[in-house]
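Need residues for this backbone.
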């Protein structure tokens, strides 16, 4: 009988294979988790180092230690290369050292990734303004105004528009500045300091009506505000509302005795009111005396105005240039009217007042043109002349 072949017993291997697979799988998982953990730990360490260097950079940037800040932000970027906040801070530090081309490169890259970022747009506008790239500056300023801002969005937009307005005033773009001010007007709200600032900016663009409205809004909220009173005094003075200007300027000087500009303008305002015979609500007697005083001041101006001849000796002797009094025939006209300029003469001839004042105005205009500014009375007569000539 043939012997049966021996069978290979694989049962031990079959029972051990699942165990081996499980062990290997476990080791693989453990290795993966270890590598993942180490990778995360490494990333966390990198991020921590980046934050640490960035924090140092921010402190030095705020303290205007720009060169040190540049090194610190660049070190932070070694650990976190694509961090936009670090790149923005580095650009700001570079701008602090007027390295605008380098800063511009970082900011343009950031803008391509975040075109809606208000801070990036504002910094690009500032760089363009420094480079006298007006069109580019205006584009980025407007982008910044309507962009996304962290935190107080409306406040940042208002600050940006104010910066744009100041830039427009610097480049003498007064019409554009006025348009931006009108847009800003609706965003100010009930804040007396902001209303006062708005009024002062309207004064700079010579929009005195809107300036006065802003100053009045400020005074409604803060009646004793000296800056608002001073500004309202300037606006009303420029509009020829001298009585109102006197009231505002008196309030400003009373609240701030060191305000020499308001004191000087108040003195001029009071001179104008004192020497204007055309103002309402004064008696005929007072009106006539004011006209006589103005006429005499114009006569003094004629006597004081020297020759209008140019400086420097000519190559050959020439006759001396005539004085203003002789050149325009104004002295003869003044002398002819002088005997009639009495209270009695003005009572007998009511038209004489207009004739005398018109002559006084002519004298002051020509004397100023030939000899330069006169004294306070002369300046007051010019303001009166401008006021009534316009009317």
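Answer:
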């Amino acid at each position: 009988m043939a012997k049966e072949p021996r069978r290979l017993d694989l049962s031990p291997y079959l029972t051990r294979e699942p165990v081996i697979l499980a062990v290997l799988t476990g080791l693989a998982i453990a290795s993966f988790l270890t590598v993942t953990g180490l990778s995360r730990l490494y990333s966390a360490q990198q991020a921590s180092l980046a934050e640490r260097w960035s924090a140092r950079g921010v402190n030095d940037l705020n303290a205007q230690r720009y060169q040190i800040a540049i090194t610190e932000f660049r070190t932070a970027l070694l650990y976190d290369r694509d961090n936009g906040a670090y790149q923005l801070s580095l650009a700001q530090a570079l701008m602090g050292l007027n390295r605008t081309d380098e800063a511009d490169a970082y900011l343009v890259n950031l803008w391509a990734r975040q075109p809606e970022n208000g801070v990036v747009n504002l910094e690009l506008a500032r760089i363009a303004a420094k480079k006298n790239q007006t069109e580019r500056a205006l584009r980025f300023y407007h982008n910044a105004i309507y962009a996304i801002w962290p935190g107080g969005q409306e406040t940042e937009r208002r600050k940006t528009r104010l910066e744009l307005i100041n830039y427009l005033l610097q480049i003498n773009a007064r019409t554009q500045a006025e348009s931006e001010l009108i847009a800003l007007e609706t965003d100010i709200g009930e804040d007396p300091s902001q209303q006062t600032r708005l009024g002062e900016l309207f004064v700079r663009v010579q929009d005195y009506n809107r300036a006065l409205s802003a100053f009045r809004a400020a005074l409604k909220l803060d009646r004793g505000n000296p800056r608002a009173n001073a500004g309202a005094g300037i606006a009303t003075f420029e509009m020829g509302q001298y009585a109102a200007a006197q009231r505002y300027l008196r309030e400003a000087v009373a609240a701030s005795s060191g305000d020499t500009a308001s004191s000087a303008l108040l003195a001029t305002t009071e001179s104008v009111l004192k020497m204007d015979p055309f103002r309402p609500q004064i008696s005929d007697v007072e009106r006539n005396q004011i006209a006589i005083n103005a006429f005499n001041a114009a006569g003094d101006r004629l006597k004081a105005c020297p020759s209008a001849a140019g400086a420097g000796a000519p190559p050959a002797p020439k006759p001396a240039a005539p004085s203003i009094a002789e050149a325009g025939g104004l002295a003869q006209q003044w002398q002819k009217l002088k005997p009639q300029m009495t209270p009695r003469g003005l009572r007998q001839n009511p038209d004489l007042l207009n004739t005398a004042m018109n002559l006084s105005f002519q004298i002051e205009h020509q004397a100023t043109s030939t000899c330069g500014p006169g004294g306070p009375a002369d300046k007051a007569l010019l303001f009166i002349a401008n006021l009534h000539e316009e009317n």
